[in-house]
Design brief:
heterodimer; A: mainly alpha; B: ABC transporter involved in vitamin B12 uptake, BtuC; two-stranded antiparallel sheet
């Protein structure tokens, strides 16, 4: 416990994230009577199953120093595949196929990025459009629907008051990824290529392996989010789910990742996703239109970016000041030495 | 002098290879042009008509102008904006508000100049604010992703998410549907803006600074050209281009809504991605410092040509989006392979 507190107080961004999420939660808990209740907590965790996964996917990519813009299209493609195949093949097999397609897309992206040594934003803008087109093709430009809406009931049944199988699986994925990122060699390699790529490559870390793992994880998480959304609503569209990119980015940045890479973690991603969930769930009670939700989410993102950028600028100024001060000190001490030598 | 002599002494094949390597992407683009053109002549009905070519250039003009603005941002090493369509939509809403209601004062209703200036001013403000955050050290992608949500939210809030109509005899008709010497006004604007941008980039101090900052940020900083002011200026240029396109589009449609440029806009799904695709297909380096607005214009015409052909062949929107997506990925991979090991890629 002491370790935990020490860790949080040491990490400015993480403590800022916790503070922010706490503020958002308290704000809504005070203003809305029913916000602090079992049902709302269940609803928040249900949303967490989707947003948390997308936030986790973007967090891993940003830790590796890249950003995956194709996440919404990947999720939409997976949702279309799963919903379309559930009727002929049954839900489990359809989920398996959809998830393997998404993971394979992630692996391909990671391989191309590491092989050509190109920035991920460049290639993922292309795949954003490509995957969206593929999803439209598979859906035949229509909204795909389940014929039997009772099939996906198994992922929404309540377990233990607060959880559903979907949210339990997502929490399990979070724990697994957290252990993987923290305690295995492969996870630490992802941190290394994000934080200091040149140094990591010089030290002998292959670029290809961590990049492929990071993007495979990101593709898997995006696909899983798409699966959950598709099965829950029973419908899927080729052009849908583009809002996931904004929500995931906000979750990742609130969770304390740095755009420069190598910073942040799974705990931060969970807190960030929860913050976005609090905001979204709370705004539901005000019966606002969709664009207001987008507006407030973006404002949250801008607040976090401004905080991060300012703290970085402040840090670099502080470092420069201290450097100049040490130089001055040395200069004066040298001058004094000279003077004393001359005086003698 | 000695360098020139050395260069002359190179064997012809090496010189040819060097020339080809310098202009590979242009050569690939031009040969693709030729292939598409010949395919179009032989296998597509109604392709080789003047009306069709006018339609192609007219399509290209809409996202070509935005892409020319975006080229400045890309060349200066600031990647790209994800808030293009949102900037365009809020500027369009502003313009339509001015034309329909005159911002509350009935005297100004339908006043073209005031509405145009207001729309451009909104573009300038959004560009300056986003450029300020990017110049301070924010990542362009993340900043403009947040900016996109805010701009869209404000635009939808202001217009109550309704369609704003204004009636037909209005002062902006010449820009929307008018034509001059047989070409629509928007096509003329595209041509003029392309020429002006090319001149600015090639022959002015500012244009060379854009290339310098994009090619080597550290060198730019050392010689006193910081990215801070550069980011503000290029973001403003890009946003003003978006505002201009929005004004032309709204003048043509006589109406505006906050999601006119979203979702199933035109050919390929998403205006923002389409514009970014145009810049990439033209073969500009996304890392900055390499490329030109001429390439962007060619890329716009190329995408419009491919799209036009697919429409004439009766494809749905799915295959068309796949086609444009494949073009982007292909051009990125080709560019990446040719630039491998050079400075263009960190």
């Amino acid at each position: 416990m002491e370790n935990f507190i020490k860790k949080i107080t040491k990490d400015v961004d993480l403590s800022f994230a916790i503070l922010l999420s706490f503020c958002v939660y308290v704000f809504f808990a005070i203003n809305i009577e029913v916000f602090f209740s079992h049902n709302i907590s269940f609803a928040i965790l249900e949303r967490f199953a989707v947003l948390g996964l997308v936030g986790l996917a973007l967090t891993i990519c940003i830790i590796a120093g890249e950003i995956d813009l194709s996440i919404g299209s990947n999720a939409a493609l997976c949702a279309v595949i799963v919903v379309k195949l559930t009727d002929p093949l049954g839900a489990p097999l359809a989920m398996l196929i959809g998830l393997s397609v998404s993971t394979l897309i992630g692996v391909t992206q990671g391989f191309v990025i590491a092989f050509i040594r190109i920035r991920a934003i460049v290639i993922t803008v292309g795949t954003l459009m490509l995957l969206r087109g593929v999803a439209l093709l598979i859906a035949e430009e229509k909204t795909v629907m389940l014929t039997d809406f009772r099939v996906p009931d198994f992922i929404t049944t309540k377990v233990l008051m607060y959880f559903s199988p979907a949210s339990l699986t997502v929490i399990f994925i979070f724990i697994c990824v957290g252990i993987f990122m923290r305690y295995t060699k492969y996870g630490r390699e992802i941190y290394a290529i994000g934080g200091a790529r040149k140094e990591a490559l010089t030290a002998g870390i292959p670029l290809r392996r961590p990049m492929i793992i990071a993007f495979a994880l990101s593709g898997f998480c995006a696909g899983f989010a798409g699966t959950v959304i598709g099965l829950k609503s029973g419908t899927a569209q080729g052009l849908g789910l583009q809002y996931l990119l904004l929500a995931g980015t906000v979750a990742a940045f609130v969770g304390g990742v740095s755009i420069l890479g190598g910073k942040g973690g799974v705990l931060g991603a969970a807190i960030g996703a929860l913050t976005v969930n609090f905001l979204n769930t709370g705004l539901v009670f005000y019966a606002l239109q969709v664009h207001f939700v987008q507006l407030f989410t973006s404002v949250l993102l801008v607040i976090v970016i401004v905080f991060q950028t300012m703290s970085r600028v402040f840090d670099s100024r502080q470092a420069r000041k201290s450097l100049l001060a040490t130089i001055d000190e040395r200069k004066t001490s040298l001058l004094e030495k000279k003077r004393s030598a001359l005086g003698r | 002098m000695s360098a020139i002599i050395e260069n002359n002494q190179l064997p012809f094949s090496a010189k040819f290879l060097q020339f080809y390597k310098d202009r590979t992407l242009l050569a690939i683009l031009l040969s693709l042009f030729a292939v598409m053109f010949i395919y179009g002549i032989f296998f597509t009905e109604n392709y080789l008509t003047i009306t069709n070519f006018k339609a192609i250039i007219r399509d290209a003009a809409l996202y070509g102008i935005m892409a020319i603005g975006l080229t400045f941002v890309t060349l200066s090493g600031n990647f790209f904006l994800l808030s293009l369509k949102e900037t365009a939509s809020i500027c369009g809403v502003t313009f339509a508000m001015g034309m329909a209601t005159g911002f509350g004062s009935p005297d100004l209703a339908g006043n073209f100049l005031v509405s145009l200036l207001a729309a451009l001013a909104v573009g300038v403000v959004s560009g300056v604010i986003q450029g300020y955050f990017v110049g301070m050290g924010g990542n362009p992608i993340v900043v403009t992703l947040g900016g996109a949500g805010i701009l869209y939210g404000i635009g939808a809030w202001w217009s109550d998410n309704l369609v704003i109509n204004f009636t037909r005899p209005h002062d902006a008709e010449w820009l929307g549907t008018g034509s001059f010497l047989g070409l629509p006004s928007i096509t003329w604007s595209f041509i003029l803006i392309a020429i002006a941008a090319e001149i600015v980039l090639r022959h002015t101090n500012f244009g060379r600074k854009v290339y310098l900052v994009g090619a080597n940020k550290a060198a730019g900083k050392a010689t006193g050209h910081e990215n801070f002011s550069m980011a503000i200026i290029v973001f403003t240029i890009c946003s003003v281009c978006c505002a201009f396109v929005a004004v032309a589009f709204v003048a043509q449609m006589d109406s505006a809504q906050s999601n006119y440029f979203s979702a199933e806009f035109g050919s390929s799904g998403d205006m923002t991605i389409l514009v970014i695709a145009t810049v990439m297909v033209g073969g500009n380096s996304i890392m900055g410092g390499y490329g030109s607005t001429l390439r962007t214009s060619l890329g716009a015409i190329f995408i419009a040509m491919v799209d036009n052909m697919m429409v004439l062949q009766g494809f749905n929107s799915g295959p068309r989006i796949v086609g444009v997506g494949l073009m982007i990925v292909f051009s990125i991979i080709v560019f990446g392979l040719f630039a491998k090991g050079s400075r263009a890629q960190e």
